[in-house]
Each structure stands twice: as structure tokens, then as C-alpha cells.
Sequence to fold (45 residues):
Amino acid sequence: MFGQPEKQPAPPNPSLCGKGRFVRPQKILKIKHGVLPPYPRFQAA
Fold:
């Protein structure tokens, strides 16, 4: 854990974590649904 000090400052960033998490589910929904309606709906929320 001490060998990777760059990874420690990443978890404490809720902004980056939240964005990365939201982008992943959005891409999965787009590929799974294959429709555009579900995409803008998540962005509006």
C-alpha cells in the first residue's frame, strides 16, 4: 500500500469516484438498452 501513494489520493475524491461510477453504468445501459431515451433520462437526474 505504501508503494502506491498515488492511489491513496484517488479514493478520497468523491467527485472523481462519483463521475467514474456514473459514466460506467451509463455506458452499460446504452449498450444493454441500445436506445437513447434511457441515456438522457440518467443525465437529467
About this structure: The mean pLDDT is 53.
